[in-house]
Hints:
Blueprint: H1 10-21, H2 25-38, E1 43-49, E2 55-60, H3 67-72, H4 100-106, E3 109-115, E4 122-128, E5 131-138, E6 143-149, H5 156-160, H6 165-182, E7 187-192, E8 195-200, H7 205-213, E9 221-227, E10 231-238, E11 250-254, E12 257-259, H8 262-271, E13 284-290, E14 295-296, E15 307-308, H9 311-328, H10 347-351, H11 399-410, E16 414-417, E17 421-426, E18 429-434, H12 435-453, E19 458-468, H13 471-486, E20 490-494, E21 497-504, H14 512-522, H15 526-530, H16 534-546, H17 556-566, E22 582-586, H18 587-594
Parallel strand pairs: 1-7, 11-13
Antiparallel strand pairs: 1-2, 2-6, 3-4, 3-6, 4-5, 7-8, 9-10, 10-13, 11-12, 14-15, 16-17, 17-18, 18-22, 19-21, 20-21
Helix pairs in contact: 1-4, 2-6, 6-7, 8-9, 12-16, 12-17, 14-16
Amino acid sequence: MDDIISLLPDHVANQIAAGEVIQRPASVVKELLENAIDAKASEIQLLVNGAGKTNIQVIDNGIGMSINDVRLAFERHATSKIKSADDLFSITSKGFRGEALASIAAISHVQVYTKREVDEMATCLKISGSEVQGQEVSVAPKGTSIAVKNLFYNVPARRNFLKSDKVELRHIIDEFHRVALIHPEVKLTFMNNGSELFELPAVNYRKRIANIFGNKIEEKLIPVEEMTTLAGIEGFIVKPEFAKKSRGQQFFFVNKRYIKSPFLNHAVNSAFQGMLRDQFHPGYFIFIQIDPKTIDINIHPTKTEVKFEEEQNLYAIIKSMVRHSLGMFQATPVLDFERDPSLDIPYGLQQNPPSNLPSVEMDSSFNPFNNHEKGIIKASKNNWESLYSGLEIKNEPDKRDEELKLAFDETPKVFQLLRKFIVTTIRSGLLVIDQQRAHQRVLYEKLLTSITKRDMVSQQLIFPMEIELTNQQIALFGELEANLNAMGFLVKLQDNNLLISGIPAFCNDKQLGQLFEDIFSLIDDHEQVESFSQSDYIAKILSKSLSIKANMTLTVEEQQALVDDLFACKDTLTCPFNRKIFITLDKEELEKKLD
């Protein structure tokens, strides 16, 4: 029998390895930016076209490479960072395994210009699918410029699995943020399709956070710091009252490397216990310096997961440090009392606002100072009985009362259960409706209809509201604007602020701040956004934010109006998030439970 095992060709092995290291354009951005940092660059430019699928270019003013080094850099396992296995336990640089550039070159067209300070001329190297297409002398400034074009051009199956441009761009922005946050001393510029997204000057940590997430975040930050024999920790936490529903402002860095750690995240959450509203998450930017010998960062291809030798002690230090800072800066627990529903616009009036103002009739001849004029009767012991003249007590029921009672009996009875469910009768038994999910369905269909017909009525705000946006949110707003306007929001950009001058009739202006925070934060859930059209997803976010919540008391009229609106919808079975809206309890089931 012939042998069946053979060695893979190098270019095939490189493409397979690329699948582990290079998952999407953001992976290329991460590797190239980290290489530029390792090259001691003080200025780095990132240029992206077509969400990284067409072109990714990183230009730095670092130390550059020699003619031989630039060729070796694209060979597998070629690295300047380690010489032996022992070096794995004292790593301080970003990259070290020598896989990234070889993997990138295997699945794209790469063009490199590089020059050291001691060199008179630069070197230009061109590679396509791991094959060197040419190397020549060129002219370029000190540093390195790497352009990666047509990513996954020779692996069409991988390219087809990439998400839409807006999703891939947000992944790139995430990677850019991670590098920028931990290296505030480096000037960074990010150009997307020829437009500037970020220009970040060299500053300190606090200013870098503000430059990325907006100047208003500075007043929300509380500094944290703890120096122990195990680790040195510093950074910032976000005040509890500014916690968000998304986890977009949660960053851990270990030895200047971004990591994901559910274990350490739990330590921060424990420190905030009792200070956050339900389903809200704390924001933090925590930088940890620790002996490289006490951690293992080689347990995941993307190097974002770290194994700590003394993780229990680190957990305790972080929890204590955050608690101490919250106490020092007088951050107090949030008492999230439900708002008084009597102050809200009733649900029935939200859906069917009164169209006519009440008329008022006045008697212009009436004089309150003339006691002889009609309209004033002096009360005295002699005439108090006249107040009751014309009133007769009837023992027999009024015919109109009987008609009203009959009509009420014919109307389906509703009542609220546990301030969460609406219970109503049906012919076969009882219907138990989740009030929040029902209202979400009603709003969702109303919003989608408004996008289709573009006939949503807007109500003007007396005082337009301004919301400061980050650069990332400004870039995202361009895609959202048309749909928001179709839904009844009158919004536009003014400098770096979102100016809101009108809202849909069913929206309360007190909800606007949280509403737009939800829109911009929840839409960062990349995979969920991709699974729906953008208009559909925005309608989902709005229906979730604007809907009646649990623990909200509704009047009988409001309950009935909601039930009527629900059963006027096209889909009455599930809410926009595919959760069941109601259950039925038929007579047989009720009788069975009583047996």
